[in-house]
Amino acid sequence: MTTSEYHEFVVIGAGVGGLQQLTRLLQMGRDVLVIEANAGVGGTWFQNRYPGCRFDSESFTYGYSFSQELLQEWDWSEMFAARPETLRYLEHVADRFELRPHIRFDTRVVAARYDEPRNRWRVETDAGDTVECRFLITAVGNLSAPTTPSLPGADTFEGAMFHTRDWPHDGLDLEGARVAVVGTGATGIQVISAIAAQVDRLTVLQRRPNWAAPLNNRPIGADEMAEIKSRYDEIFARCDATPGGFVHGPVEERFADADPAQRRALWERLYDAPGFGIWLGNYREVLMDPEANAELSAFVADKIRQRVDDPATAEKLIPRDHGFGVQRLPLETGYYETYNRPNVELVDLSEEPLERATPRGVVVGGREIALDVIVFATGFDAIVGALTRIDIVGRDGLALRDAWRSGPRTAYGFAVPGFPNLLALTGPLSASGATNFPRAIDTCVTWVSDLVQHMGDHGYTRIEATAEATDAWVHDVAHSHERLLMRNARSWFTGYNTNLRGTEKPRHLMYLGGAPRFRERIDEVARHGYEGFSLERV
Ligand code: NA7
Predict the structure, then answer these.
(1) Is residue 495 within 6 Å of ligand 1 at its C-beta?
(2) Would you state the pLDDT for residue 406?
(3) What pLDDT is stored for residue 493 in this prediction?
(4) Residue identifier of the C-alpha nearest atom 15 of ligand 1
(5) 497 Cβ inside 6 Å of ligand 1
(6) Is 187 in the pocket of ligand 1 (CB under 6 A)?
(7) 492 close to ligand 1 (CB < 6 Angstrom)
(8) Which helix (H) or strand (E) holds 234?
(9) Cβ neighbours of residue 144 under 8 Å, at least 6 residues apart?
(10) Confidence band (pLDDT; 50, 70, 90) for 507?
(11) Ligand 1 pocket check for 207: Cβ under 6 Å
(12) Does position 424 have pLDDT exceeding 90, yes or no?
């Protein structure tokens, strides 16, 4: 049965972004419906249930900063909380701010069409319902559209086979199981480290190794949590000041001014310290200058050699095609030591290609490996995929998929010419993909909420990014890549993992100029009456 209802705002997704946007709009007294595909709130933290899933952000920088009461009542148990705790936190937020009545669960948005004469979006769900709204806000997640390689014979495999995002919600007994994990990104590295001791035999199918560094997690005791609570203003101010929105920002000292012994001393300290320090709290030059990067890469390669007993295996785990930190750095707990276990085998797919699945397992390099479980930790169609998987059609029948066929184009990640009143909370070309996500979400929710307040105050009912402002931003985003070695990353940071075929170049999916500059820029746009956007009363 088709029903039609109207809300001023429809928000797609009840993850970290959708929940904050909903809270803010309700505080502003607006009429909002959130449509969520899952049965509960939490987005990424609801969906990803694989063993080992946890933050790489310090827990106390991941929580929302918008409510002092919330900050003071919530205790984090670890520096880097595991998924169940994060999900409990987001459920607590949903309860505390009475968000659930405004969320329609178990409902997936499949299409959205802009009805120009009525200046409304018609949102279609997989339940066959249509909901109309004035503003459509997407909070669909940057890493929520999984990619699974097509493996010949996959349908004949008699064991369990799934993407990490679809890890069975009822859990999976791995005791005595023969398991293969395909992929060694941040997810694969967490899964591999978490399950190696439980399973009978673990086969890691590695296409390319990734650089990884220790998470150095530890519990947060009651005294330390009280101390953190007393410093939240300072902690969030620090996050606001760093390019990545973390407590870690580049050191002031220049790489060239330090001698090799001083560099080594810094790197030893960072390697043993919690979190992303070795990546983001390092000399600026290590992510910009190939020589500085090579020296740091050699330091980390030696760490891998020290931690892995078998020299041949250690060499296979050391990336040769990119330097340290050029791709998103996975943080690990005992990952390299996993390969010292007798029940773990590393298969280098460049030597033994993954040929096919059979009823009993997989064939690599002509040999069959018997398996009970195949786990695809093969990543996501990042930043773009969750949006283009929805059939979004704007003005004059223009489909978002077609508008972005040769790469996403947005004004500041928020808006796309030809798609009036569609606001992507952390869309392509935003800074959020490269930022401690909730900190970027906070920036973006504030900006979007101020925008709709401004529109209401002035009687505007339609907003659309201009083509000129969008072109200029696309150009600025490209420019933001030029200084960084990351520009060549063959990973989800550049869409290389899914969007590119053959000889195409990496794409620009995010602004890499850092969160403070992004914030300055979008605040300036707002100060100038939303320069670069056409605002109309229709
Ligand atoms: P990533 O970082 O995109 O990693 C995916 C991994 O899967 C990576 O090692 C890929 O190898 C590998 N992969 C992808 N396709 C294949 C095929 N066809 N065959 C073999 N191996 C393959 O995704 P994650 O889920 O680990 O992490 C995503 C983000 O989630 C992470 O950065 C955090 O922000 C949270 P490749 O390196 O491309 O050769």
Answers:
(1) no
(2) 85
(3) 87
(4) 378
(5) yes
(6) yes
(7) yes
(8) helix 232-241
(9) 15, 43, 44, 47, 165, 380, 385, 386
(10) confident
(11) yes
(12) yes
Check pocket membership of 355 for ligand 1, CB cut-off 6 A: no
149 Cβ below 6 A of ligand 1: yes
- For residue 114, list its beta bridge partners: 121
- Using a 6 Å cutoff on CB, does residue 142 contact ligand 1? no
Ligand 1 centroid, distance to 384 Cα (angstroms): 16
CB 152 within 8 A of CB 356: yes
* Ligand 1 mean position, distance from CA 492 (Å): 8
Res. 422: pLDDT tops 90: yes
pTM of this structure: 0.97
At 244-255, the pLDDT tens digits run 999 999 999 999
Q: Please, what's the largest Cα pairwise distance for the chain?
A: 72
443/439 Cα distance (integer angstroms):
7
Among 147, 187, 436, residue to substitute to test ligand 1 (most atoms within 8 Å of Cβ)? 187
CA of 205 to the centre of ligand 1 (A): 11
Ligand 1 pocket check for 40: Cβ under 6 Å: no
Atom of ligand 1 nearest to the CA of 490: 38
Q: Look at ligand 1, atom 4, and give the residue with the nearest C-alpha.
A: 185
Amino acid code (one letter) for 80 = F
Going from N- to C-terminal start, the domains of the chain cover: 4-41+99-145+381-536
Report which of residues 506 and 128 the model is more confident about.
128
Write the pLDDT tens digit of every residue in 286-340. 999 999 999 999 999 999 999 999 999 999 999 999 999 999 999 999 999 999 9
pLDDT band at 1 (very low <50, low <70, confident <90, very high): very low
Residue 64 near residue 442 (C-beta atoms within 8 A): yes
pLDDT band at 352 (very low <50, low <70, confident <90, very high): very high
The single residue listed with the structure tokens 């993850």 is 15
Under 8 Å between Cβ of 460 and 537: yes
8 Å CB contact between 462 and 419: no
Tell the residue nearest (CA) to atom 18 of ligand 1: 149
| Burial per residue of 145-178, b for 16 or more beta-carbon CB atoms within 10 angstroms, e otherwise | bbbbeebeebeebebebbbbbbbeeeebebeebb
pLDDT at 66: 98
Beta carbon of 122 within 6 Å of any ligand 1 atom: no
Which tokens go with 5? 């209802």
Task: Quote the CA–CA distance of 282 and 405 in Å, as a whole number.
Answer: 37
**Cα of 191 from ligand 1 centre, angstroms:** 12
What confidence tier does 446 reach under pLDDT thresholds 50, 70, 90?
very high
Helices 232-241 + 222-230 axis angle, to 10 = 70
CATH code, 4-41+99-145+381-536: 3.50.50.60
What does the pLDDT average to over 257-279? 98
The mean-pLDDT minimum among 110-114, 241-245, 399-403, 496-500 falls in 496-500
72/228 Cα distance (integer angstroms): 10
- Please tell me the predicted confidence (pLDDT) of residue 505: 67
Give per-residue pLDDT as tens, 469-491. Answer: 999 999 999 999 999 999 888 88
